[in-house]
UniProtKB/TrEMBL annotation:
InterPro entries: BMP_lipoprotein, Peripla_BP_I, PnrA-like
Major place of residence: membrane
UniProt organism field: Streptomyces neyagawaensis
Superkingdom of this protein's organism: Bacteria
Protein name: BMP family ABC transporter substrate-binding protein
Subcellular location: Cell membrane
Protein family: Belongs to the BMP lipoprotein family.
Annotated ranges, domain ABC transporter substrate-binding protein PnrA-like: 52-326
């Protein structure tokens, strides 16, 4: 699992650069030389964040880490823009088009919510490469960056089954949508396969829609976690963006295990006071995918079409940063075996 651990070093939160106003009321951090759109062709990667924005210590921060890596390596100008409360697809489209018009290339929408906006914007700017994370958008100049979340979640389920003492574990999903169903399905399968059906999984979704705050409300995550802990869950896995911080807080308070998501949350500074309770994290190398797209454009061979990041290419994985991980009997070996069997095809991980 050593190679997976290296994956996560990119996905850490760091101090943001100076913020300046930009399209649709969002904010953009920029560095390097160049004027407002006058140096078209000299600007590089731009990302537009999903709900929760920068500072979620998870999904969006992983994308930002990819931007930082590209900025440092290629020495060009970058931009990252926050979402706004209650924004429409038209707002998202305007944001993407504004970045393309300014000369940024590629322009990445972080999250499936950018689907309709990206489909429209990419047609208006055919010479710009667009990327979308967690969704598939058709277009000759669009790269759809998708992940095998169910595979990482299966490994998280293996860890939960090995770590539980109560034989009850929990899953908290941010929003009840197909993407998060993949996390739940893989997790449940990993738990059941490892325990032989002896461990119970309690599942709960925070909201039916993203607009209700399922990915951006730590208080909702905390309340859900507390309810599961009352029912006996002693390992809690959250696939809920910013809301997952509330799950981790509740787990730490109750002295039970939490499993993070997307980034290695054991290493996140904002979660340092809870790190002792973060057993592991199901990793999703959003930063690596964003960087890979930026590099392809920089090299003059822009990626397009569906780009899948799975265990085989270390696009997903499981963190082992917490020293306690290695102390749980049989855990490391079980995870390593499961990973091998998923890659070989012996284990077929469910997505529903």
């Amino acid at each position: 699992m050593r190679r997976i651990s290296k994956l996560t070093r990119v996905a850490v939160g760091v101090a943001s650069l100076a913020l300046a106003a930009t399209a649709c009321g969002g904010t953009s951090s920029e560095s390097g030389n160049g004027g407002d759109g006058e140096s078209k062709g000299t600007k590089g990667l731009a990302i537009a964040y999903d709900i929760g924005g920068k500072g979620d210590q998870s999904f969006n921060d992983a994308a930002y880490a990819g931007l930082q890596k590209a900025e440092k390596e290629f020495g060009y100008k970058t931009a990252d823009i926050e979402p706004t409360e209650g924004e429409t697809d038209a707002d998202k489209q305007q944001r993407l088009e504004s970045l393309a018009k300014q000369g940024y290339n590629p322009v990445v929408g972080v999250g499936f919510a950018y689907g309709p906006a990206m489909e429209a914007a990419s047609k208006k700017f055919p010479k710009t490469t667009f990327g979308i994370v967690d969704s598939v958008v058709e277009g000759d100049n669009v790269a759809s960056l998708v992940f095998a979340e169910e595979q990482a979640s299966y490994l998280a389920g293996v860890a939960a089954a090995k770590a539980t003492k109560s034989n009850t574990v929990g899953f908290v999903g941010g929003v009840d949508i197909p993407l998060i169903h993949k996390f739940e399905a893989g997790y449940k399968q990993g738990v059941q396969d490892t325990s032989g059906g002896k461990v119970k999984v309690i599942s709960q979704y925070l909201t039916q829609t993203a607009e209700e705050g399922g990915f951006s409300s730590p208080d909702k995550g905390k309340a859900a976690a507390e309810g599961q802990i009352e029912k006996g869950a002693d390992v809690l896995y959250a696939a809920a963006g910013l809301s997952g911080q509330g799950v981790i807080e509740a787990a730490a308070k109750a002295k039970v295990w939490a499993i993070g998501v997307d980034s290695d949350q054991y290493k996140q500074e904002a979660l340092a006071s809870y790190k002792g309770s973060i057993l592991t994290s199901a990793l999703k190398d959003v930063g690596g995918a964003v960087y890979t797209l930026a590099k392809s454009v920089k090299d003059g061979k822009p990626l397009t079409g569906v780009q899948t990041f799975d265990l085989k290419v270390n696009g997903v994985g499981l963190a082992e940063s917490n020293p306690e991980f290695a102390k749980i009997a049989g855990l490391s070996a079980a995870v390593a075996k499961a990973k091998e069997e998923i890659i070989s095809g012996k284990i077929k991980v469910k997505t529903e």
